[in-house]
Design goal:
18 helices, 450 residues, MFS_trans_sf, mainly alpha, 77% helix, Growth Hormone, Chain: A, MFS transporter
């Protein structure tokens, strides 16, 4: 796999070479070095993200059964989905700043073990209040995971590789949807009554154990930085440092201190752009099973299988568009166009959600736009942020953006409860996505994220 190039070189270890003779380093050596890094860390991070997303959205399958067991209305479900992001938002920036102090390895391990244990505890929920508390606790446990890994990847790969690297990582969302749906559907269809537990309780138990195990593995598998790896030669480490520092003209324009980043308007434009993406994610991740059931599919296992289709189509679209974005070295318009694709899918979903074909087509368009926007988006802040500003601001952007994940499910759930249809919520999501596409396309056009 051909891999990307350079970004933020951070904190060299003492005695490590700070440069490499350009003439002595063939392009093939650079490609080989980043290809080796990608093969070593991307599959593991990919697995972590797959598990993360399965545990975050398996609630959309569990609620098909447990809403009657714990007395949950559609509005209460939407609120429960949303309150996850209260803890997530509050602890995201502190988690990423702590990552800079204790390192990615310990941070990722801590987050995975905690979220796995909290996810398992969801099987003990007996009423809506306990449901809300468990969801908030899950948000606290997961806080900093996604932005921490985004920051981690920027310390390994230069800008020209990032859309491809991030798309490979974000592909975890699609794989979680492709695999998690059928697995969750199978558990719900077959586990009822095992050891006197409901099937939805087995769902939380069986899908909460893997992140605990993988989190423990992260402690010895992941290196904190290129400089601390034992599987890169000194020459390869120097290549990484040189490539990360070699972004033309970047040092004079990039913000390196978190305080300065807090005063920069581009940070908040990016935060609004990410806020709008989460609306597409809410429609896809938390209402797809309900939409498929309303379209006439009753069997939970069949719902799980069909829910994989939009993610599969979305993954293909994401990989193709991300590669095109890297080839053109253009992010802003790619993001805007894909946000509009999601908006179109939401409109189609609102207009024809009760018909099977249009419902799947609408979900597929939402998935294409959502997955691609998520992959491309995180290349934009790295064009004007570095160092501590990058670590803190990526978390800040994610935190503010995730307010969309708090408001979107609550709004969509409330509208669905009142109208007994997802149409109004889908149209609102389409409007928000159109606003995000417009703001990013217009505000970021002056030499940033071209």
């Amino acid at each position: 796999m051909k891999m990307p190039q350079g970004t933020l070189a951070e904190e060299r270890v003492a005695g490590m070479p700070s440069s490499v003779d350009t003439a002595a380093t063939a392009p093939a050596d650079v490609e080989r070095t980043f290809g080796r890094i990608a093969k070593r860390i991307i599959p593991f991070l990919f697995l972590c993200y797959v598990l993360n997303y399965i545990d975050r959205v398996n609630i959309s399958f569990a609620h098909l059964q447990f809403k009657t067991d714990i007395g949950l209305t559609e509005a209460a479900y939407g609120l429960g989905v949303g309150v996850f992001y209260i803890g997530y938002v509050l602890f995201e920036v502190p988690s990423n700043l702590l990552l800079r102090r204790i390192g990615p390895r310990r941070t990722i391990a801590r987050i995975m073990v905690l979220w796995g244990l909290v996810s398992i505890s969801m099987m003990l929920v007996r009423n809506p209040t306990q449901f809300y508390v468990a969801r908030i606790a899950l948000g606290v446990a997961e806080a900093g995971f996604f932005p921490g890994i985004i920051y981690y990847l920027t310390t390994w790969f230069p800008n020209r590789y990032r859309a491809r690297v991030l798309s490979a990582f974000v592909l975890g969302i699609a794989v979680a949807g492709i695999t998690g749906g059928p697995v969750s559907g199978w558990i719900l269809s077959n586990a009822e009554g095992w050891q006197a537990l409901h099937a939805w309780q087995w769902l939380f138990l069986l899908e909460g154990i893997p992140p605990v195990l993988v989190g423990v593995c992260a402690l010895w598998y992941l290196p904190d930085s290129p400089e601390t790896t034992k599987w890169l030669s000194a020459h390869e480490k120097a290549i990484v440092v040189r490539e990360l520092e070699a972004v033309p003209g970047s040092t004079s324009h990039q913000i390196s201190h978190f305080g300065a980043a807090l005063r920069n308007w581009r940070v908040y434009v990016c935060a609004f752009g990410y806020f709008t993406i989460t609306w597409a994610g809410s429609v896809l991740n938390f209402w797809a099973p309900s939409v498929i059931r309303q379209a006439g599919v009753a069997n939970p296992f069949h719902i799980g299988l069909l829910s994989a289709v939009p993610y599969f189509i979305g993954a293909i679209g994401m990989l193709a568009v991300s590669r095109h974005s890297d080839a053109r070295d253009e992010r802003r318009l790619h993001f805007a166009c894909c946000a509009l694709v999601s908006a179109l899918g939401a409109v189609l979903l609102g207009a024809a959600h009760s018909s099977f074909g249009p419902a799947i087509a609408g979900l597929a368009l939402v998935a294409i736009g959502y997955l691609t926007c998520t992959a491309i988006f995180w290349t934009i802040p790295a064009t004007f942020l570095s160092g501590t500003a990058s670590a803190g601001s990526i978390a800040l952007i994610s935190s503010i953006g995730q307010l969309g994940s708090l408001t979107a499910p609550t709004a969509i759930g409330s509208l669905t409860a009142v109208t007994h249809s997802i149409s109004a919520g889908s149209y609102l999501a389409a409007f928000v996505l159109t606003c995000g596409a417009t703001v990013i396309a217009v505000a970021m056009r002056n030499g940033v994220a071209k």
